[in-house]
Amino acid sequence: MQITTNSALTAPTNGAGTGAAAITSDFNTFLRMLTAQITNQDPLNPINSEEFAVQLATFSGVEQQVRTNELLVALAGQMGQSGFSQMAGWLGMEARAAMPVAYDGTAVSILPPNPIAGERHQLVVFDSTGAEVDRQTITASGDAVTWDGTDPSGAPLAPGQYDFWLESFSNDTLVASEPTQTYGAVREVRIDPRGMVLVMPGGIEIFADTVTALRAPGAVDATSLASAA
Question: Is the pTM for the entire model greater than 0.85?
């Protein structure tokens, strides 16, 4: 199994903003054309009243679309700022989530899930390129596992980003592969078009809605102070 890890989220283009600008531009263009048509009409052959009524109805519809879009953008901004303020309390807390680990030479505590299948289970470690660098057999208890940062030969691995997965086997056949979780200190909170983003040690970024628990700094893995559900 080979996994490619990502240390940062990719920000999407702001389609809503682009759409709003396009709608506003169309609205202004339509308004100029309608004004020019009325100003330059032939007094002896004025615009047909029914045709003019249709144009006015179109004008009203475009105007309403522009105003509605502006209100939605403003509302989204207010909601984002409100959520941002509420999450200020997360700064400095330790958040639990399925995410890569920025290994700095210190032993890492990994929280594997309770296996969904199989009778033999292994914690598999991948580096930032997706290459497997370590594998160790663990129990099915779901208890925290400490990884000391060495490869199967006992040689220390270089600091960097590592991903941890639980692989389960039945009669030597891989039957399940599940991501593990770990705790990391919340360094920064950012507003993203897709949701609130937490910046973790090593610049790793995760969405706030993927966090399953929060705890005070230095708490043991067995104790979660607050559920993020």
Answer: no
Question: What are the tens digits of pLDDT across the range 50-77?
Answer: 776 676 667 666 667 767 666 666 555 5
Q: Decide: residue 187, CB within 10 A, 0-12 exposed, 13-18 middle, 19+ buried.
A: middle
**Could you tell me if 223 and 206 are in contact, meaning their C-beta atoms sit under 8 angstroms apart?**
no
- The rounded distance, in Å, linking the Cα atoms of 130 and 112 is 19
CA distances from 152 to 36, 137, 149 (A): 79, 11, 10
The helix-helix angle for 49-86 and 15-39 (nearest 10°) equals 150
- Computed from CA positions of residues 122, 125, 130, 132, in that sequence, does the dihedral angle turn out positive or negative? negative
Query: Is 218 a residue whose pLDDT tops 60?
Result: yes
The region that residue 133 occupies, defined by phi over 0 for left and psi between -120 and 50 for alpha, beta otherwise, is alpha
